[in-house]
Amino acid sequence: MNAATPILHQLDVRGLEPPEPMERVLEALDSLPDGDHLCMLIEREPRPLYRILAHNGYGYNTTVLPDFLYQVRIWRRAPEPDA
Questions:
Q1: Neighbouring residues of 13: CB distance < 8 A, sequence distance ≥ 6
Q2: Could you tell me which residues are beta bridge partners of residue 74?
Q3: Single pTM value for the model
Q4: How far apart are CA 42 and CA 79, in angstroms?
Q5: What pLDDT, in 10s, does the model give residues 38-62?
Q6: What angle in degrees, to the nearest 10, is found between the helix axes of 47-55 and 20-30?
Q7: CB atoms within 10 A of CB 40
Q8: Which of 23, 45, 59, 78 has a Cα at 20 to 30 A from 31?
Q9: Superfamily of 8-76 according to CATH
Q10: What is the pLDDT of residues 1-42, one digit of tens each?
């Protein structure tokens, strides 16, 4: 396996009531190895999560799937160089 290829960790939080999906994704991010990605599957867009991710140095990409599910891929952004 190429070291540059991130490992994708799956997290299915469909059917869970708030705030459990957010709690589970934040817990999973605490133990996410550097360079890996977390892929969350949820049935509603997790808008409150986006601000938390941005504030804590994570990037994300949200895809709406044909079956009205949301797939959110999350990764640690590289630190910004000092100006």
A1: 20, 21, 24, 25, 40, 41, 42
A2: 38, 60
A3: 0.88
A4: 28
A5: 999 999 999 999 999 999 999 999 9
A6: 30
A7: 25
A8: 45
A9: TusA-like domain (3.30.110.40)
A10: 455 788 999 999 999 999 999 999 999 999 999 999 999 999
